[in-house]
Amino acid sequence: MKKICIIAIIGLLLFTAVSASSYYTPNRTNNPQPLKTTYDLLCIAPKSFSKNLQPLIDHKNTIGVQTIVLTTEDIYKDYTGRDNAEQIKYAIKDAKESWNISYVLLVGGLKFLGLGWHVPVRYSNLDDGTGYNVFLTDLYFADLYNETGEFDDWDSNGNGIFAEWGKDILDLTPDVAIGRLACRTAKEVAIVVEKIITYETTTAGSSWFTRMIAVGGDSFPAYPGYEGEETCDVATSYMTGFDIQKLYTSTGTLTGPADILTAVSQGCGFLMTRGKGGTDRVRMGLPEGEEIIAFQNKDVPKLTNKDRYPIWVFGECIHGKFDVCVLNIVNVIQNISGYTMADCIYDCIAWRLVRQKDAGAIATLTNTNICYGSTGDVNGNGIPDDAETYGGFLAVELFRLYSQEGIQTLGVLHQQALCNYVKQFPVRTNLLHSKSVQEFILFGDPSLKIGGYATD
Questions:
Q1: Do 162 and 349 meet the contact criterion of CB atoms below 8 Å apart?
Q2: Secondary structure of residue 115 in the 3-state scheme
Q3: Do the Cβ atoms of 184 and 203 come closer than 8 Å?
C-alpha cells in the first residue's frame, strides 16, 4: 500500500501559513517517507468542496487542532482497493500510522440526483428481518484494525461481500473518531462550516448552552410504563448543572411540533428524543396507544435558534439514512427490497437539521436503519432496560460520558460510547447488538469542542 507522501514545501511555512499547507498532495515521483509530523484531524472531501471547506481548516489550525485534507481524487489515484470505500479506508489507516490522527471528518454525501457519492459509503450486509438487508455504516471507516492488529477489511472470508453477517468476522472497535458532513453541494459545506466556527468561538459561557431538552413518549403501548420518557429520565439524571426541560406525551407537555420549536428556539446545549423513528420525522406514542408526529423535516426551517445550536441525539430508528433520494422512487416501483416511499425524499431528518442555515443542530447522533428498544426492568436494578441496551444504551451513554467522565470532544464521546458497547455486549455473535453498534452515526465534526472554546 502506497504510503502518504509530503511534497516539498517552498519557503518557511509556520503556523501563520496554515492555508498554504492545509491540502496535501502526494508526490508520486519520488515517494519519500512522510515527514515526522502529526495531525489531529484528517478531512476527506472532493476537490469541488475545497474552497468552502478551507475556512474550517484555517479555524482548526488556529485553535490548535492540527488539520490536513486529502481529496478523494488524490486518494483514488494513490491507493489501491476493491472499491472507493476501501481506498478511503486505506488512506485513513495510512494517516493514522504516519500522522497519528485522532479524528476523521468525511465531507460529502450523495451527488446531485443521487448519482454517486462525493465521499463513498459502506453498507453492512446484515438482515435482521425488518425489511432492510443492508444498511449504511460509517464505523467501517473507523475500525481500522482487527484483533491481531492487521488491517480489517470487513471481508474476512474474502468473497467480496463486506460485513456479511455470520460469515465475516468484524472487530467493530473504532480506532479513530469518525464523523460525516453529508453535504451534497458546496453551498451546504459553507453553511455547516460557518455553524461550526461560530459554535466553537461563541458558545462558551453562554447561558443557553446549559439547557437540555428531553422529548419522550410511550414507545410500547402494549406494555406497562412509558419507555421513551423513562430512558430520557436516565439520560437527564446525569446532566447535573443543566436546566432540564422535559417534553413528554404523558404529561401533556408534548402535543406536537410547536412545543419542540418553542423549546429549541430558546437555545439548548443538548436535545434527546426517544420515541419512534422515520427518515424524515420523529413520532411519539401517546398513553392511550395512538401516536403523534413530534417533529419532521418541514418543521426545521421554522426554527429560530441562530447561533444557539444543540447537539441533538435521536434515539430512534432510521433518522440517519442519508442515502434517501427522490430518485429512489425507481427502486420502489421496481419493488426492490429495502426501499419504501419514505426513502424518496431529499434529506433524512438528522442531516436536515445540521445543514439548516442559521438554525437547527450543530451535530446529530442517531441510527441509519431500524434500531431496537426494550421494556420493563428484567434485571431488577431499578433502571429501565430500554436505557441499558441497544439504541437506548448508546444514547444514554453519551450523556454519562460527558457528565461523569468529562469527555468534551464530540467525536471522542461517540467513539467511546461505541467502544463501551463493544466491551459490554456480544456484538460479534448477536445480530441485534452487532447492528446497534454499526448503525450509530455522527453527523458533525468529530473534533468539535462541546460547549466551544473559552476566550481570554
A1: no
A2: coil
A3: no
Rounded-to-10 torsion of CA 64, 65, 68, 71: -140
pLDDT attached to residue 385: 96
Q: How many Å apart are CA 135 and CA 216, to the nearest integer?
A: 26
> 3-state class of 328 per DSSP?
helix
* 365 within 8 A of 398, measured Cβ to Cβ: yes
- Look at residue 33 in the predicted model and tell me its pLDDT: 32
Looking at the structure of the chain, the number of domains it has is 1
pLDDT, position 304: 98
Cell numbers 454517486 correspond to: 116
Backbone angles phi, psi at 321, to 5 degrees: -80, 85
Is 233 domain-assigned? yes
Identify whether 197 is part of a domain: yes
Residue 338 confidence (pLDDT) = 80
The one-letter code for the residue type at 426 is P
Secondary structure of 267-325 in the HEC alphabet?
A: CCCEEEEECECCCCEEEEECCCCCEEEEEEHHHHHHCCCCCCCCEEEECCCCCCCCCCC
Could you tell me the pTM of the whole model? 0.93
Q: Which residue ranges of the chain lie beneath pLDDT 70?
A: 1-36, 456
Which cell numbers hold the place of 253?
407537555
Predicted local confidence at residue 289, as pLDDT: 86
Chain-centre distance for alpha carbon 449: 15
- 337: its cell numbers: 427490497
The CA-atom distances, in angstroms, between 426 and each of 155, 366, 430 are 19, 21, 6
Amino acid at the residue 257: P
Q: Domain containing 235 — which CATH number?
A: 3.40.50.1460
Asked whether residue 95 is assigned to any structural domain, the reply reads: no
List strand residue ranges (DSSP E) for 277-360, in order. Answer: 281-285, 291-296, 311-314
Task: Print the domain residue range for 308.
Answer: 193-443
The position carrying cell 453553511 is 191
Q: Give the CA count within 13 Å in the CB-facing half-sphere of 276.
A: 17
Contacts of residue 436, defined as CB under 8 A and 6 or more positions apart, other chains included, come to 371, 372, 390, 391, 393, 394, 421, 425, 427
Strand partners, 291: 285
**Gap between the Cα atoms of 351 and 443, Å rounded:** 7
Decide if 381 is inside a domain: yes
